[in-house]
Design a protein that fits this description.
122 residues; alpha+beta; Arc Repressor Mutant, subunit A; three-stranded antiparallel beta sheet; elongated
Length: 122
């Protein structure tokens, strides 16, 4: 238990901030993204993802089909550009019995929206 706690502390300490990596230019220079357009496209793509019944299957297939990498996906979360939200909602079709279950979605954070706005003005 102590070792696990220490590992978690090290992982948290190793996270890097958006400013530390050098902003948009740093993300490209580090090889995480090929160009500004790729980062913009990923943020836009993720901000429209919804997950009825918290089923993520198709999202990851679409992510790779659009030529985004796992590293890019993880980077936008690690840098605080995207966050996951969920709530319990009724998923029923009108006229059918209620179907309450978790409903999740991805949303741009204020920082993520700022980055996307910057990219649109480049």
């Amino acid at each position: 238990m102590i070792i696990a706690s220490e590992l978690l502390t090290l992982i948290n300490a190793s996270s890097i901030s958006y400013t530390e990596i050098g902003g948009i230019k740093g993300l490209i220079e580090q090889g995480i993204f090929e160009n500004e357009s790729q980062l913009s496209n990923l943020l836009s793509f993720l901000s429209y993802q919804v997950f009825p019944h918290e089923a993520y299957d198709g999202m990851f297939e679409d992510l790779f089909r659009e030529n985004f990498t796992k590293t890019q996906y993880e980077a936008v979360f690690d840098l605080g550009f995207i966050e996951y939200h969920s709530e319990i909602k009724n998923h029923n079709i009108p006229g059918e019995p209620e179907d309450w279950d978790d409903f999740g979605w991805l949303k741009l954070t204020a920082q993520g929206q700022k980055v996307l706005d910057q990219l649109e003005n480049i």
